[in-house]
Amino acid sequence: ACFHLRWFQVMASFIFSLVLCLALGTKSEISDVPDQDCELPEEEGDAWLSLLQSRSGPRTSLLGQALSKNISSNLAGNVAPTAKNKTSAHTIVTHTTDFINRVDILIVVFILACFGAGCLIDAKLPSYTLGGGHPSAKVISLLVSSYLLLLPGLFTTLFTFLIKVVINGQEIDTTAVLKRPGGLNESMISLCQMLFDTGGILGGILIILYAMVVPIVKLTLLTFGEIWRHSEDTAKVQQARWCVIGVQQVSKWACPDMFAYILILYLFRAFNKPGSIIKGPASLDVGFTCFSMFCVLSTISTLAIQPPKAETEKIIDPPWLVKYFGLQGAKYCSFVLVFPLLMLLGYGIWAPCMGMRLDADLLIAANGMDPGMKKAMDSLKIADMVHTDVSLANCIMALCQWFATKFEVTSGFAAIMLGIFVGVLTFLDAISLALAALKLDAKPSGGKALARAHVLKHVSMLDVFVMGVLVTCLAGNAYRDRGTVFIVEPGLLALLLAEFLHYAMYNLVSSAASYVDAMTDIGNDVLS
């Protein structure tokens, strides 16, 4: 017990040092946009800027006030752009990429050190392990390290972005609409507060649910599961079993927020096109890495915890598929599902799943601007500049490009989360389920393929990704009346249908395999 206490103290001290490093981290200006600004003809630029200053009395919103204030102070007298304006354009203060990379690497080293210490205890100091069916030291080390990383994942900077309109070298900050003039530099906690302050109540509630409530529920269920594991009361032992199984079922559902932040990064960086007057420098920070590692490590470690054995029960009633089609019919019906599943998955990966649009009429009405603004916006094609779509494949390729060219380790982590956990693991699980369906009459039913499918089902995150997109769109709907519209596109529907088939295939194969194994046991009992 003393050894475990010292081990926990070492890890707690390490994470405290990590948080301290984040608090004292160096800052710098980042700019993810091309150096080429949009130079408009003088008459057109002046007309555009003068229209931006127009508003209709008390209906002026925060955005309208911000625009008017910027224009009044910076553009009065048609001041020509200076070299200083050009240099400081579209930048925001945040952690440097080098600093984020160093901390990301430090986090990986911390995780490997904890896991190595757990393996060492299991191998060399077995007397210090809990034993008796409880998790091994290496599993506990991963679980504890994941929850220690959750703390900075909630309280340190998660992402940074800034949206500006740059006309002839002059900048207009539009993030004032979110009560964050000068750009957003948010942690998970401050993001929730911002959403509540600006009307995104549903988005704030969903973030709290997935990022805070789910981890607390997981830890609570695991605690009771281990306390009741060896209880003399058989009812409590069964409750302990369902606690552990419940944690394994919900563990990955802390992740939707993480996928939402990745998609937002892609959408905002898509503004940075040569010749565009809208600029959106954005970056994921250390808080994202910490939270992502928590999601992955806690999911993997909980799957390694064995639930207590179930009470002996013989399943007599066959699943409906076996009942109406027989075992051979169930086998081939389940196998056939893999083909539409993979077709929908492939289409959903390449087709746009979410988009961002600008509704000029809503924007003008919300900001109390002159209706003539609409004509100027149409002439500058502002709506086309904001028109952005994101597909899973394009987002993965962009993340890999940023990792390779900008040396952003965080983008590399994000690419792994999307490419491996959403795409590859879902594909492998579908193949494993198809192979298990063909082996339903084997002993045990489904063979090793079903055992692999069981693990892959709990770590593949296509369902979580779909929910992340829906969370983003639901949170963005709070700002629809201000002109910003997030839409769900056909790719998401294809992914949703693919995941529905994934769930159906898993339930059909696993239930049929359980029935076959139960009937085999009954036959063996009769023969004995």
Word description of this protein:
The protein is built from 21 helices and 11 strands. Helix 1 (2-23) packs parallel to helix 6 and helix 12 packs across helix 21. The strands form 4 sheets. Strands 6-3-8 form a 3-stranded antiparallel sheet. It is mainly alpha-helical.
**Span of the ends, CA to CA:** 47 Å
Helical segment count: 21
Gyration radius from CA atoms, angstroms: 27 Å
Average pLDDT value? 75
Give, in spatial order, the strands making up the sheet with the most strands: 6-3-8
Helical amount: 55-70%
What structural class is derived from the secondary structure elements?
A: mainly alpha
Q: Segments where pLDDT lies below 50 for 5+ residues?
A: 1-10, 22-41, 51-91, 524-528
Instruction: Give the overall shape, derived from the CA principal axes.
Output: globular
| Biggest sheet layout | 3 strands, antiparallel
**Residue share in β-strands:** 5-15%
Number of beta-strand segments: 11
Task: Give the structure's gist in a few sentences.
With 528 residues, the protein is mainly α. It has helices at 2-23, 42-53, 62-74, 83-88, 97-124, 137-155, 188-197, 201-227, 234-250, 256-269, 286-303, 320-336, 338-350, 360-367, 373-380, 382-386, 392-405, 409-438, 447-459, 462-476, 490-527; strands spanning 27-30, 92-95, 157-161, 164-167, 170-173, 184-187, 278-279, 282-284, 352-358, 388-391, 484-488.
Keywords:
528 residues; mainly alpha; 3-stranded antiparallel sheet; globular; disordered C terminus
